[in-house]
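[Meeting: bench + compute handoff]

Bench side (C.D.) handed over the final construct sequence. Compute side (W.E.) agreed to return the predicted structure before the next meeting so the bench team could plan truncations. Sequence as handed over:
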Amino acid sequence: MADLLLASQNLGKLEELRALAQGLPFEVLGPREIGLVEAPDETGTSFLENARIKALAYAHRSGRLTLADDSGLSVDALGGAPGLFSSRFGGEGASDLERNQLLLEKLRDVPNAERGARFTSALAVARGDAVLFEAEESVTGVIADAMRGGNGFGYDPLFFYPPFGRTFGEVERAEKDRVSHRGKAFARLRAFLAGMGDGD
């Protein structure tokens, strides 16, 4: 069985991607499991460009087939922020709770009709110096007026998805994966990875 390195130091994202990769002919590893503790600088101007940067950096350093995800939340009332800076919203080292509280504060006087938002996920797979596959998907919703639910991670407790009538934090992972930005992007990726086989 071949290795697949998930290029993320975010433990919540790593757990979610590991679950999405179940059943594929790969042993899924996180960077810290092979001694990679420093993440590359994300200098891209799009989610997809940042995913490529991470995939190529980790693939080069590890010598392994590498999957990277770059994702974020874009809020209409904030001009698309936090966007590419979603993981650094509130400053380096801010917790999920602190980022959610900051978002609520910034939207405190914004009416529900103007609280539209979009999650975007870009995936890139690299080996050596080559990107072998990439995909980008998104899901639209509304920023709730309070955090709801303890599932998921990041901004999930604030991301209200109208077809569910609940936030992503209030639904089980399998239910979220069917419609989420990362779940849809990974669905496109699964056939590619499955076709690579054990001996590749």
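W.E. noted at the follow-up: Helices lie at 11-20, 47-62, 96-106, 173-177, 181-194. C.D. will use this when planning the next construct.
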